[in-house]
Each structure stands twice: as C-alpha cells, then as structure tokens.
Description:
Layout: H1 3-26, H2 40-46, H3 63-71, H4 91-101, H5 124-132, E1 139-141, E2 144-146, H6 155-166, H7 169-173, H8 177-184, H9 195-206, H10 226-237, E3 257-266, E4 283-285, E5 296-299, E6 303-309, E7 318-322, H11 326-332, E8 335-342
Parallel strand pairs: 3-7, 4-6
Antiparallel strand pairs: 1-2, 3-8, 4-7, 5-6, 5-8
Helix pairs in contact: 3-10, 4-6, 4-10, 6-9, 6-10, 8-9
Amino acid sequence: xxxxxxxxxxxxxxxxxxxxxxxxxxxxxxxxxxxxxxxxxxxxxxxxxxxxxxxxxxxxxxxxxxxxxxxxxxxxxxxxxxxxxxxxxxxxxxxxxxxxxxxxxxxxxxxxxxxxxxxxxxxxxxxxxxxxxxxxxxxxxxxxxxxxxxxxxxxxxxxxxxxxxxxxxxxxxxxxxxxxxxxxxxxxxxxxxxxxxxxxxxxxxxxxxxxxxxxxxxxxxxxxxxxxxxxxxxxxxxxxxxxxxxxxxxxxxxxxxxxxxxxxxxxxxxxxxxxxxxxxxxxxxxxxxxxxxxxxxxxxxxxxxxxxxxxxxxxxxxxxxxxxxxxxxxxxxxxxxxxxxxxx
Length: 344
C-alpha cells in the first residue's frame, strides 16, 4: 500500500476514534479503553463479528456497542428492523436489556405482584425476576405495587439500577454520607441528585462507571436514550466470559461458582433489609464475609435471590431466605446442603 494512502487511512481511523471519544464525553459516560496488559484474545471474547439486523444505527456513536449486544443475544431488532437509538429508554426496555446482557433467563412466576404488569404479559417474567434480584423496588400506591413500565428513565435511576444489576449494592451502601455530600458539592447541579441516588452517583463517578458531562454537570434528571443504555449494558454488564461459564440446568443462566450451605427462612413485616430495601421474596440474609452484600444468587428450592440482609444468627455457610408469611417460613424449616449458585 502506498505510504500516502496508508497515512490517509490511519488519519481516518484516528478521526473515528476521536469522534467516538468526544461523543461519549458529551453523553457523560467514561471512555472505555482496553485495560493495560489485556490480550487480543480477551477483547475478542466480547466482540463477536456477527452483523446486526438494525437498519438505523449506521454511523451512530454507539453503533459498536449496539451491534455487540445484538451479537451476544442481549437485544433484538423490532419488526421494522429499527433499534431507535436516540429514543428515550423506558423502564421495561432497560430492565429487559440489563437482564439479557447478564445472560439471566427470566423465571416464570404466577404470583400477581405488579398492578400495571399483567401476569400473561411477555414482560411479567422479566419484571418479577429483576424485582427478586433487587434491580428495582417498585412504587407502592394505595396498597398496590407498580412498576411503571412505559416511564422514561432518568440518569440517576439508570445508574442506580445499573449498580444493583452489577452486584455493587453492598459497596454503595458502605459509602459514608458525609463523603457523598462532599463529593457532590463541586458540581453545579450536585444538589439536584435525589437523596436515594446520591451515593450511587458518587460511587459511579469514583469507579469510572459514569462521568460528568462536558460542561461539568451531572444532569441527574436527564432522560436517557436507548443508545446510552446500550453502552452501559455493554461495558458494565456483558460478561466476556459468559460463553465459557457453566449454566443452570433449566434456566441456562450462567453462574460463577457454587456453595453448599444451610438454609432457613424468616418472615417479618414493616421492616426493611439491611441495604434499606423493602423485604420480599428474593431478599436473603447472608454472612457478608462469605457472600458480599449485593451478590446475586440462585438457590435451589427458592429461586433467584439477592444478598441484601444480615442476621445475628446468620454466620458462615448459612443463608436465611425471606418468605411472605410465618407459616411459610416455619414450613420451610432448616435445610442442609442446599446448593447455591453465585451469579456475579
């Protein structure tokens, strides 16, 4: 290849890289680069060369991430072949995308939990699985629980759901409020972050999960796009090792390791879990020295769960699962050698 043509090609590549980096900074996301010392093989595990069927992402700043999510089976085009990258992402779209990026197969559940998600809806298994895993906590109104599937997602909510999906809830909970408030002070709109999202925003900033916008603001109430959600899902949730991990026999969800533990059950009302979450099925108490808080699990005979609580009697290889009634907890009893799958 003539040197002039080669130089022009290099310049075009550099311009594309710079354009991508500039776009990500303008969107308030970290510019994700290959880790120092990573090998091409490690990168290729995540980047599958399957072309996407989307007809509306060519030249988009998030094209790579959208195509890789498609190649890994985390998203699919609609009947028109569109991804609609610049449309605002809804809560239903975000939850399904995040679950799929982690390879979590929804678990059928006939219980009626959400007033606005019918049990026969395609969305119901996704919402109920994400709820059990602690991705979100719902909105209670007049004694009923609502998911609000069509509601657009603000930046502070996306970051909160993302951290919970990553299994980082325990780490976020350890952040001191004094440190959090101090960290938000330099930002012109730092006081606009809702109290429930403050520690999450600061944790994401400190761990290069999110970044300020190019004007130095956080824009916590900015409505997020489907492209932005896809970039977060790809860089933060899509596990490059997912294809080589063992999977649950019936649900095909990948897991990292297994434990054999003793399980008991508890039932309480009008109290919250250690992480401050409303108690419901899926919340389990653990010894944080054995299973870090925030870790996602699958427990034989119980289902998907999240380590969100602790207990004075819960030590070592012991898990206390939450059940909705005292009768159910007593019937569960004490079970030895329960197999637990660690999903994170």
